[in-house]
Amino acid sequence: MNEDNDTQKTNPMECCFPAEGGKQAELGGMAQCPIAEVCQSMLNHSRMGLVLLIPGLLFVLGGILILLEPTVLVWLLGCTSILLGLVMVTLASFLRKLSTTLLHAPDPFSPR
Fold it and tell me: What is the value of pTM for the model shown?
């Protein structure tokens, strides 16, 4: 490969941000990375910070609550166990109904 004709940018920031004027940068014949559009839309929406802030604060408050009252951890584990059990029972019921439906359905690959 001829290194004089290599037009690929070496700066990673040039790859992930639009070129001047908001136009997409062309890097060695390849379009700008797709993550740049996602990053740009996240920067334009002011509520994106709340998406991480609220769960982060809830985790911190939950951790402090567990440190102050360790029995909360037992309650959380118990509730999680019950919730996971209900999800598994619901999924098992759905799969049983689906299997009976598929077993009694006509075979789409059989000749008629």
Answer: 0.44
